[in-house]
Structure formats: structure tokens, C-alpha cells
């Protein structure tokens, strides 16, 4: 009879080994076995990059990760058997760390050209994300991307818009001006320092004030999905993705995360650069 067998702990001699101690060791052993079978154990770390993208993901004034996607990530990671370790990064640094394996996963946007061949995207997507062009009443709606030519476009500092920023900056006929945050960008638009503001719908809707911003209008530019992007520099990327997707389905069934979405091809405004679709 082997002392490392959990059932055999019941039959160890009473000498120097109490009944209660045997019960305690058996409970600890069975808990460890169950956690291992679940796909992970406490202390099984997963390095999670996150960026400033309120209210989706952001860092609080006291340096803690926050936002609805952060909460979903925390729940899914734990359910999948991992202990998330959040790392706050600029967007460009998040791309780099996913490529070189310094982080394991990023809760971010799908279909980023710079990460093509570098990541695996989760099948589960908790939320959509919409890029919009914001403008003042009296300005022409943006119904074709060519309307940005000979215009001044306001962008948010630190955002690459999936690489679209580089295309905008490469066009001599488009003037690009940068705002430090969403509130400043809206104020610049209202002061006439730009014709259009390119920004994501959720952060802007979270920032708009009524009635002060009632003159601001919106045109949809592109719709995408939020998902978990797993670094292919991690040899276990496919295993972790599978664990995340399975965990998300379990949590969706109990209502702890949004229902599983049926993904469909998103909207893209006519004239949008082909290489950044």
C-alpha cells in the first residue's frame, strides 16, 4: 500500500498520524486533483495585457485594472483555471509584447493587421466595437471614407485604430491632429479644430454630456468584435484559447457573462482602406 495514494491515507497506522490529519491530507489531495482536472490550479499565472480604452478596459487612478472587459476576463480566466496577472501597456507595446511573448493574452479588438500570424483569437466575443466618425450638426455625414480628404481629422493619442492611423498620416491631403483623451477630443471638435473625430462608440457615449454636447453627430465607419487574443509565442496558446472558450460558454449559461454571440461580417464604410479592413 502506497502512502502517496489518496485513498490509502485512510489506512495509515494510527501511530504518530491522527485520524483527523489523514482526513485533512485526503481533502487537500482531492482538491488538488480536481483543480488539475479543471485545467489549472491556483497560482497558474496568465499574463494579461490591457490598455486605456474606457469604459471597456482602463487603469484606475490608484493603478488597478478596471472596465467591463477586465471583469469578463477575470471571471473567464479563473473559470478556465488560470490566475490573471494584469499588465497595463500602451497599445503599441501591447502589440510588441504579444509578438515576443512577454504577455500571454490581450482582451482587445479582432482583425488587427499588425498581429496577423502572431495571435490566436478566441471564438467567444462578449461585445461588439464600433469605430465612428463624430462631427458637428451642419457638417456633412461621413458616408464615404474619401470625404476625409482635404479635412482635419482628430484622433486619440496612443490609438492606432488597428493600423488605420498610419494610413491617415501617410495622406498629404488629410491633416491629423491628436487629442490626449475622449473629452478633449470632443472639445476640440466643438471648437472647430477638426472636421471629424475618429473614435470608438463606447468611450464617446460614456463621455458625452447632455445638453452640452447635443450638437455632436455620428457616422458609423467600421464595426468589429472584442475578443481575447492569445500570443502564439506561447506554445500553449491553442490550449489556453480552448480553455477560455469553454469557460466562457459555461459562464454564459449561468448568466455571469453576456450570451454567446453569433458573429457576422461587420460593417465597413465605402472607401475604407482595404489593407486595414
Please give a handful of descriptors for the protein shown.
277 residues, alpha/beta, 2 domains, 7-stranded mixed sheet, two-stranded parallel sheet, disordered N terminus
Task: Give your account of this protein's structure.
The protein is an alpha/beta fold and 277 residues long. The chain has 2 domains: 45-128 and 225-264, 3-Layer(aba) Sandwich (D-Maltodextrin-Binding Protein, domain 2); 129-223, Periplasmic binding protein-like II (D-Maltodextrin-Binding Protein, domain 2). The protein has helices spanning 19-37, 68-80, 91-100, 164-170, 182-190, 201-207, 237-253; strands at residues 45-50, 58-59, 65-66, 83-88, 105-109, 119-121, 128-136, 152-156, 175-179, 196-200, 216-231. Strands 5, 6, 7, 8, 9, 10 and 11 form a 7-stranded mixed β-sheet that branches. It has a two-stranded parallel sheet with strand order 1-4. β8, α4 (164-170) and β9 form a beta-alpha-beta unit. α2 crosses α7 (237-253). The model is unreliable at 1-40 (pLDDT under 50).
What topology emerges from the helices and strands here?
Layout: H1 19-37, E1 45-50, E2 58-59, E3 65-66, H2 68-80, E4 83-88, H3 91-100, E5 105-109, E6 119-121, E7 128-136, E8 152-156, H4 164-170, E9 175-179, H5 182-190, E10 196-200, H6 201-207, E11 216-231, H7 237-253
Parallel strand pairs: 1-4, 8-9, 8-10
Antiparallel strand pairs: 2-3, 5-11, 6-11, 7-10, 7-11
Amino acid at each position: 500500500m502506497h502512502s502517496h495514494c489518496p485513498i490509502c491515507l485512510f489506512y495509515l497506522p494510527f501511530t504518530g498520524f491522527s485520524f483527523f490529519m489523514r482526513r485533512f491530507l485526503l481533502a487537500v489531495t482531492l482538491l488538488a486533483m480536481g483543480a488539475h482536472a479543471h485545467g489549472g490550479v491556483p497560482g497558474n499565472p496568465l499574463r494579461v495585457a490591457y490598455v486605456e480604452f474606457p469604459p471597456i478596459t482602463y487603469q484606475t487612478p490608484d493603478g488597478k485594472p478596471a472596465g467591463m472587459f477586465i471583469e469578463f476576463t477575470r471571471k473567464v480566466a479563473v473559470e478556465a483555471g488560470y490566475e490573471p496577472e494584469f499588465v497595463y501597456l500602451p497599445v503599441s507595446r501591447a502589440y510588441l509584447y504579444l509578438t515576443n511573448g512577454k504577455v500571454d493574452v490581450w482582451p482587445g479588438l479582432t482583425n488587427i493587421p499588425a498581429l496577423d500570424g502572431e495571435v490566436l483569437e478566441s471564438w467567444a466575443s462578449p461585445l461588439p466595437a464600433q469605430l465612428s466618425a463624430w462631427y458637428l450638426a451642419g457638417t456633412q455625414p461621413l458616408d464615404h471614407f474619401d470625404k476625409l480628404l482635404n479635412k482635419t481629422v482628430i484622433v486619440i493619442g496612443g490609438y492606432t485604430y488597428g493600423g488605420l492611423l498610419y494610413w491617415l498620416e501617410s495622406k498629404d491631403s488629410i491633416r491629423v491632429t491628436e487629442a490626449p483623451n475622449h473629452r478633449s477630443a470632443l472639445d476640440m471638435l466643438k471648437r472647430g479644430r477638426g472636421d471629424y473625430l475618429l473614435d470608438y462608440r463606447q468611450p464617446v457615449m460614456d463621455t458625452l454630456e447632455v445638453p452640452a454636447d447635443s450638437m455632436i453627430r455620428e457616422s458609423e465607419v467600421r464595426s468589429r468584435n472584442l475578443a481575447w487574443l492569445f500570443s502564439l509565442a506561447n506554445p500553449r496558446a491553442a490550449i489556453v484559447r480552448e480553455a477560455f472558450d469553454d469557460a466562457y460558454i459555461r459562464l454564459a449559461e449561468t448568466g455571469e457573462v453576456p450570451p454567446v454571440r453569433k458573429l457576422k461580417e461587420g460593417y465597413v464604410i465605402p472607401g475604407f482602406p482595404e489593407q486595414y479592413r
